[in-house]
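Below is how a single chain appears once it has passed through the pipeline. First comes the sequence as given, then the structure the pipeline wrote out for it. We keep one example in the README because the format questions we get most often are answered faster by looking than by reading.
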Amino acid sequence: MVAIKRHSWTKKVAVTLLVFGFSILASGSVNSNSSESEKTKIFGKKNTIRISIGTQDQVINTAVGGATVREMDLLRKHLPTTGKYEGVEYDIQWSSYTSGPPITNKMLADQIDIGLMGDFPTAINLIKFREEGGDVESTYIGTLAYSPNGAGNAVVVPKDSDVTSLAQLEGKSVSVPFGSAAHGMLLKALKDNGINPETDVELISQAPEVGGTSLRTGQIDAHADFVPFGELFPFRGFAKKIFDGAQTGVPTLHGIVVRSDFAQEHPEVVKAYMKAMLEANQIYRDNPEATSAKIEEWSGIEKEVVYMFLGPSGLQPLDPTIRQVHIDALKNSITTLTELGKVERQVNPDDVSGWVDESYLKAAMSEQGLDYDQVIAEAENYVISGNDALTGEPIEEPKMAAQLWIQGEETVTNFASIPNMMQMLPTLRAEGKAADVMFVHDRNNGWKLFAENSYYVNNGDGVSAFLLQEDANQYAAASGGQVTAFKELQATYAQTTPAPVGAAQ
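Resulting structure:
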């Protein structure tokens, strides 16, 4: 009896193993190289796909791919649910960091699948995967925001400092996050101004929040940083900008990288993420002030600073494509990193062209009915428009336009000129209102500037704003104008009566 029972149990096991074997043949063999999701599916467990995304909430250039997608739950909206994804559960994991290197480390450890970071960290990410990733590489798949000339990176000093130029930093202490885009900008800027970074200044590695504290307490003479800190610290009132990355003329960006194994196994998921990012772009462009306020809630960066970078005529256009200007930014990063000795083996900067893949972005655009060239055009032409709030005239020259954000109001008020904005101020004061912030634009380059921190030239025909005092001096000499400080300009219009709406200027 016992023998019969043993034989029956053995037969059942054999049949079970045989069926299991056929299951393996049908599904693909299980081995150490099988992905975790494949293994869980084979063994009959609930199939869960982890999507781990590393972002930088305070670096508001990543907001359209990070916080906005996360907080509005846009990724889940676009994730596939049919075919091989039917019945799948998605485990979406978000983590935020103050810089790119920790994201790269976690991507190499297979703890993050998609990373958002600046150009220098991106170059390091792409190189490190090719050095240490084995069969896995990382791929650059899209851009979040960028500047064709480097605007966004900056050097600031304490507000009461006598330093007004890089040349005056010789012999002084300057902190910067090492390995960042700002680090590369600083090195180039110092060299361009005849300062040897290794011998003429004391360079210290400090993260943004540490650099800000060091500026406040006088522990350093200057701090160089990336988006948004070069504008954030002056806005908070304890620093002033003496150099803008745009003066280097070298492009900078923040973009998206993905592990190749994740992209190959789940291309539809990567495409869904790109759809979510594209939707976030549109949400921001449709309602820049309201979305800036939301990003302030999510990141702790004031809405006025967010708007300065991403709003109309902002410092960093929201362009998701990968074009030559973006390739150039990465190539420049590799060249500088090599010069700094941050790359262990020789890397040809031209190789980066083979480390990008726009197929996920283009597929997402196609399914959302977006034209590639039109997306680029919208990003490049996202400038101040509409009518002047004082005179009603159309705003035709965005570089000459001005804006103020009145406290308590949800939208920014636009003006065709700086004088028109200044003429509005007495009326606002009479009504008990105050301007939370005033924006002007560099006459030469169109860069968005905080009005209080800019230089002006009044030449009789109008008022022009400049980031740099030397540019203001040159324009004044050429036009016969007078260089004017903001307080002097404000006093000039303090008693001016506003023109009625619709009147000629």
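DSSP finds 19 helices and 17 strands in the chain.

See the next section for the split statistics.
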